[in-house]
Design brief:
Blueprint: E1 32-35, H1 56-60, E2 69-73, E3 77-79, E4 82-83, E5 94-99, E6 106-108, E7 114-117, E8 124-127, E9 130-132, E10 137-141, E11 146-151, E12 154-156, E13 163-165, E14 170-175, E15 178-180, E16 187-189, E17 195-200, E18 203-205, E19 219-221, E20 226-229, E21 232-234, E22 248-250, E23 259-262, E24 265-267, E25 275-277, E26 281-284, E27 287-289, E28 296-299, E29 306-311, E30 314-316, E31 322-325, E32 332-337, E33 340-341, E34 350-352, E35 357-361, E36 363-365, E37 379-381, E38 388-389
Parallel strand pairs: 1-2, 2-5, 3-6, 4-7, 5-8, 6-9, 7-10, 8-11, 9-12, 10-13, 11-14, 12-15, 13-16, 14-17, 15-18, 16-19, 17-20, 18-21, 19-22, 20-23, 21-24, 22-25, 23-26, 24-27, 25-28, 26-29, 27-30, 28-31, 29-32, 30-33, 31-34, 32-35, 33-36, 34-38
Antiparallel strand pairs: 36-37
Length: 399
């Protein structure tokens, strides 16, 4: 729906200072290096725009102190890979950013496996870059992304995934960025037990165009603590496996997860659900529409006990609203309340296929299409009200 407003910029945060908020203010005494692809010279000092370096090779080979900023000139492009050489700290990260006027500086891998690599460093910030052209990964964060921020970065046109978090991460923020048009996942966490993960105010769209039948969701992974909030997530898994590529995919196997998914707009993902959650997840205040399968699919938890809290979401024109199915040996507890369901395709608004612990109340259900002026007649589902429960149900298109 083009008339829908973009998600608001605010995000729930603890009272403490945001990650890297003091990066520039506390780095006034730290060096700043400049890089100019046209007029730079690697024999210079790099310490001012007129003393700028020229190449990625020079940047990659130089060690930087915590708090250092390495700035690439806007309007310029570099061929090859940017490989982080030094670690900073949470308070004084090494920052790779931009200076000057014009379009964001471009790191174009030109077919190299990775465009930008964290290279095992910690305490690093990427700000205002465009990352493209990798045969595989645009931005590779690993083997342990600790105290890393990605802000106002465009990751696009890479043959594999846009952003890969390759090992367990502690303190990662991806904020205000565009992760679009990559061949596989938009963002993927390959390991479990990631903590302090914040993915917010991003556009994650048009990923998963590779024609190899892979499972290519907008985001896929397992998070122990963190939130995915205020993003627009659309048209991911374009050529992914049918029923297997979703807007957001919280995979199985994350014991004790406290992940929150909230205030996102998730729509038009053509090969799967808006959200598929196999590990415990709290899901609220999202607008989820026109996805090929259910708005939210829950279950497939194997031997882990999981809890799902799903409330205050709006669904329309999906193939079903909320679908719980394929329970594993672990217990499932579901709180499903105060959601608004419009037209739900071939499935019911709420389907609970297994015997689980559940509280289902206060949901409003309508068979009428959503309109600009509001909705058609709705039925309010009270405690103990009608919910479709089908023992042993296994929809073939949702895996």
């Amino acid at each position: 729906m083009d008339h829908l407003p973009l998600p608001p910029p605010a995000i729930e945060r603890p009272a403490q200072q945001p990650l890297f908020a003091s990066a520039r203010g506390s780095a006034d005494d730290a060096p700043v290096f400049y890089v100019d692809a046209t007029d730079g010279d690697d024999r210079r000092s790099g310490r001012g725009p007129k003393e700028a370096w020229r190449s990625l090779d020079k940047v990659n080979a130089t060690s930087f102190a915590p708090g250092t900023r390495v700035l690439f000139e806007r309007g310029e492009s570099w061929r090859g890979s940017l490989l982080v050489s030094s670690s900073g700290t949470a308070e004084r990260p090494v920052t790779y950013g931009a200076y000057g006027k014009g379009d964001a500086p471009v790191i174009d891998a030109r077919g190299a496996p990775v465009a930008v690599g964290l290279n095992g460093r910690t305490g690093v910030a990427f700000d205002g870059l465009t990352i493209t052209g990798a045969a595989d990964t645009g931005l590779l964060l690993g083997p342990r992304a600790r105290n890393v921020s990605v802000t106002n970065v465009t990751v696009t046109g890479n043959g594999g995934s846009g952003i890969v978090v390759a090992g367990t991460s502690d303190g990662l923020r991806i904020d205000g960025s565009a992760i679009t048009g990559n061949g596989a996942y938009g963002i993927v966490h390959y390991a479990a037990d990631n903590t302090g993960q914040v993915i917010t105010r991003n556009t994650i769209a048009d990923n998963g165009w590779r024609k190899d039948g892979g499972v290519y969701s907008g985001w896929n992974g397992r998070i122990l603590t963190g939130e995915i909030a205020h993003n627009r997530i659309r048209n991911n898994g374009i050529n992914g496996g049918e029923g297997r590529s979703h807007g957001l995919y919280h995979d199985q196997g994350q014991a004790g997860s406290a992940l929150k998914i909230h205030d996102n707009v998730i729509h038009d993902n053509p090969r799967g659900a808006g959200i598929l959650a196999k590990s415990s997840t709290e899901i609220y205040r999202n607008v989820i529409y026109r996805n090929a399968d259910a708005g939210i699919s829950l279950g497939q938890n194997r031997g882990i006990d999981v809890t799902y809290r799903v409330y205050d979401n709006e669904f329309y024109d999906n193939n079903g609203g909320v679908l719980q199915h394929q329970k594993g040996n672990g217990a499932i507890t579901l709180e499903l309340r105060d959601n608004l369901f419009h037209r739900n395709g071939k499935r019911a608004a709420i389907i609970i296929a297994d015997t689980i612990g559940k509280t289902v109340t206060g949901n409003r259900i309508s068979d009428e299409p959503k309109t600009e002026s509001g909705t058609g007649p709705t039925a309010i589902q009270q405690t103990g009200g009608t919910v479709r429960e089908t023992s042993g149900m296994r929809p073939e298109t949702v895996r």
